[in-house]
Amino acid sequence: MDDGLFCRLREILSQKLNIPAEEITPTASFGEMDLDSLAVVEFSLALETEFGVKVSDSELLADPTMPGVAELLQRRGATV
User: Fold this and answer.
1) Blockwise average pLDDT, block size 10, the chain, 80 residues
2) Mind spelling out the 3-state secondary structure of 16-78?
């Protein structure tokens, strides 16, 4: 995963969803970060705002990990 993209994702999760930064590692899963279904919906909306690409909560849950999110965003053409 690109370091710049990871830093942006970490920032979004930390600032918008109040996830402690130390829980957000490059390999973390949503379960490890205690993201419930409502938080995943909020995360998808924050990603759309930050990157300008639509990502549904069901797409995020297909691979609920930081690498999965990064790959999905890269496939959609999101840039850091």
Assistant:
1) 90 95 94 95 96 95 96 90
2) HHCCCHHHCCCCCECCCCCCCHHHHHHHHHHHHHHHCCCCCHHHHHHCCEHHHHHHHHHHCCC
